[in-house]
Amino acid sequence: MPTVHDIETGGRPPALEAHNLTVSYGTTKAVDDVSLVVPANKVVALIGPSGCGKSTLLRCFNRMNDLIPGAQVSGEVDFHGQNLYAPDVDPVEVRRRIGMVFQKPNPFPKSIYDNIAFGPRINGFQGDLDGLVETSLKQAALWQEVSDRLGSSAYDLSGGQQQRLCIARTLAVTPEIVLMDEPASALDPIATQRIEDLIFELKQDYTIVIVTHNMQQAARVSDYTAFLYMGHLVEYGPTDMMFTNPTEERTEAYVTGRFG
Amino acid sequence: MNTGVRRHFNEELDEVQANLMAMAGLAEDMVARAFDAIQLRDRGALAVLRDMDRQVDDLELTLDEQVMELLALQQPMARDLRFLLSTLKISNDLERVGDHAVNLARAARKMAKYPLLQDMPELEEMAAITRSMLRDALSAFTNRDVSLALEVCARDDEVDNLRRSLFRILVTRMSEDPRAISPALEALRASQNLERIADLSTNVSEEVVFLTTGETIKHGASLPDHEGSEDG
Amino acid sequence: MSTDPGRDRRRKWAGAAFWALCWAATMVGIVALMILLVDIIMDGASQLRPEFFTSFASRFPERAGILAPLMGTLWILGLTALIAFPVSVGAAIYLEEYAPQNWLTRVIQVNIANLAGVPSIVYGILGLAVFVRWMGLERSVISGALTLSILILPVIILASQEAIRAVPLSLRQAAYGLGATRWQVTRHQVLPMALPGILTGTILALSRAVGETAPLIMIGALTFIAFTPQGLMDEFTVLPIQIYNWVSRPQDEFRQIAAAAILVLLTLLLTMNAAAIILRNRFSRMRVR
Questions:
Q1: Quick check: C173 and A106 CB within 8 A?
Q2: What ipTM was estimated for this complex?
Q3: pLDDT tens digit string along C91-139?
Q4: Residue of C nearest to A62 (CA)
Q5: Inter-chain CB proximity C170 and A118 less than 8 Å
Q6: pTM for this one?
Q7: Per-residue DSSP letters for B210-224?
Q8: Residue C204: CB partners within 8 Å, gap ≥ 6?
């Protein structure tokens, strides 16, 4: 049984609630009966050893697992009181409101402007596109570096800049929640630090769930940390408690680096 | 520098510094009031100082938590790491300064019951030096001033000498006049507390040297000669 | 590691011999091609007068021209492109993006791959039965184009599937993550990126179709006509057929104009292949790095 500590939601409704989520590929369960609450405007980190199911769990939150053939998802994910896996829910709409940033920066082979404009355009945005592009780039702390070359190819940017572009692209569709799957693991330490600073800024306006295999990063960046092992949720609580005084022995073994 | 990279962490470090400065301010103030209480024969000072000591203790607990959290979650290195470790030790020292100041106030209250002992210039001088040592140690911490810190360490011997001569003087007085025994003992206690405060000021200075240069001068070690090694 | 000078020398000789063998193999192809080319040019270059391109076929070699077959080839080329391209690309998109991963899809996939290897005359028979007779399109340009389209369909489908498959998953995921529907992902991300590969495959397939003779003979392309196609239902002929016809005449002069026609056909093919290569190179610079 997982140890789940009290999660302060500050009196506000949580951004997401997962109930008994299970994801199986054939007979193997990648995620096994996980329930947790993601409070609004906080950063929740999912940590655990390789293959523990943290990325799979993350993909449950925006129904990206639907795109993986053979993946079966059971359980509920409640967003604004509605179960995202109800039969009448359109996954496309879900993904507009719950965005995702991936591990390796994956800008489109278009200009910087068109990268950011893509999301709003396909969602039928009618307003000031230029303004939206500028706002998104500013939110991603990239505006100053690229404002004079919005028409140039996204591939001319460095890795760290490309990842911030991907973040801006995600923000352009104004999601409520931003899911990040190891967003800095392909970047050098300085670029990583800038992404972490950015996450800290973003949580004022968004809720962020981040998967990371680097637990020091989870310690630096998150408010709450969930430790998963072999698909099970082992412990979930405030980050400072998880790293200074966890309850479960397995958690302690993992954060002190004595795992395995 | 609170812009750009690791702004959040820098802000947290600033908070720790601010709390430590608050503790330092309280400690200095407490020592000043305590010795004034002795001179002015103020029996009410003890209550005030107890209150201030509670604040100092609260700050120590707050700093303990803050430093632990920063060490666990932010992986501080180099100067940041030395700063946080020094903070733990300095806050511990300052807490004890507070306690000793309370003891001084107790001594002041007891001494006030008796007729004034004849002038004890040694005690006054001890108090003056101790107060200046504490003030300079804390100033050295604020400004990361290594030379000032070293000066403070050098003055510790003076205080020790003064306590020893005060001891001899008071013993003489006590043997001459039995009515002087009680106040003299209190004066002795006061001098011991002052000496402890001076020692603690020396500790703080040693921490400042460690924080700034990474070298330790505790327990008689001396600062190695580097060329232009003193960091800002 | 002990050095054995004898073995070292043998290794060096073996390496050199292998290199020489590969070089010789390459040269065989190039030399054969050069000989052919030089022979054709020597035969036909003199016949490439402007009248050659504007006259119709004739019993007299000095008055014969390739106007009819040239126009026929161009018509067939254009129509085949118009028919084959959308159908093949549509099939490729369906197979790659929409088809469920079940046994039926696998069967379809295997069949398409096999169809690419069927001899072209079989398509000619199919075209004759279905388009000329059953659909009553007679021996017209449209029958020819439809037959050739079916011939090159598998080739374009396979090439398009490859191009679509080459679009990295990460790009699709990014687009899905922004709330795009499957069609939006296909239209805005996959197709633009796969297009160079699809076009290259299409052009190469078309250049094969241009050289096809047997299926067109089967559906009844004529050899001796004195008009150019004006509408879809018109009769026609193409360059390869005309060349075949001239080559089988006894007179030497006909061989010369046949060589000239071959040169025209070769030029057309080379141009198309060059276009395919240029396209591929130009767009490969924009590949995902």
A1: yes
A2: 0.90
A3: 999 999 888 888 999 999 999 999 988 998 999 999 889 988 888 887 8
A4: C177
A5: no
A6: 0.79
A7: HHHHS---GGG----
A8: C155, C159, C272, C273, C276
